[in-house]
Amino acid sequence: MKKAASINKKTKIAVLCGGMSNEREVSLRSGKNCLAALHRLGYENADFVDVTKDLASELRAKGTEVALMALHGKYGEDGAVQGMLELLGIPYTGSGVLASALAMSKPLTKKLLSASNIPYAPTIVVTEHDKERIDEILASIGWLPVMLKPINEGSSVGVHKITEKSQIKQKLVETINEFGGALLEKFVKGQEITIGVLEEPASKRNGKDPIWALPILELRPKSKAGFYDYEAKYTKGMTEFILPAELSEDVTSVCQETAVATFKALNCSGYARVDMIVDSEGQPFVLEVNTLPGMTDTSDLPAMAEHIGISYDQLVERILLSAGLDK
């Protein structure tokens, strides 16, 4: 990947957001916030770009030198746009093509977690090829409730908590038809937490491990769904945020170490957010990795950063500087 030239206040920056995924509206909010922060910081040539199929032509016409990624979901967080930027020779923020694609695919994420001995909830993957075996698969499930998730979506899009076995089949078929595959994941009762992970740009490294975890944010959703769903994530007042999370010092350390190990296992770059459940024994289970965490007014990563004195604008500048990291 072409490294970013020295980024300065004159650099032509495109804030990429919107796009064509189910998370378009959230992405637009993230993009507008990031652009406003760049302007406050004095990056006068930062521009807002709503991603379309003509993105390559638009970036060439603008003379874009660096892309700040504020995309979420398919065609943005899955490596597709990252691959196009690679071909155009435009440095971009966040993880590279491979890490983005791996993190977006929940089954592949779990395979890498397994290979790295990182704990996650028991999971069964069901694809279109398994439609004839659905009854057999459901008969093998010995746990309830079940979390039903699309195979490759973020922001809890299409996620359902199912408490009755008789209700699983219909929702499973609907999910496969809409998203091409699904995960049946054992529901783990416990504390829902999320952990931001940052990688220091070369200019800020001091000989220590450049990848480190932010304070842990505990999420207590108020939605009727019974978990941290889309409504709870993006509606003010729908989630109680506990920062730092109410965990013992030892469990906190284990969770942060697990987040960093997960970041490294997927070869992420720059920044990411790792979501987990911690059970009553203090055991964390990784749920998913977000390689382009939300940057809205209600998003988790800015809240975690602010807790240790990194303002929203400072966080955006750190993200911008991650365009110079190896992918």
Summarize the structure.
With 327 residues, the chain is α+β, with helices and mostly antiparallel strands.
Largest sheet: 6 strands, antiparallel
Helix/strand-derived class? alpha+beta
Global shape: globular
Number of strands: 13
CATH topology (fold) name of the largest domain: D-amino Acid Aminotransferase, Chain A, domain 1
The number of domains is 3
CATH homologous superfamily caption of the largest domain: ATP-grasp fold, B domain
Q: What do the pLDDT scores average to?
A: 90
User: How many H/I helical runs?
Assistant: 11
User: What would CATH call the architecture of the largest domain?
Assistant: 2-Layer Sandwich
Radius of gyration: 19 Å
Q: Which range does the strand content fall in?
A: 15-25%
Task: Summarize the helix and strand pattern as letters.
Answer: EHEHEHHHEHEEHEEEEHEHEEHH
- Helical proportion? 25-40%
CATH class call of the largest domain: Alpha Beta
End-to-end C-alpha gap: 7 Å
Uncertain runs with pLDDT below 50, 5 residues or more? Answer: none
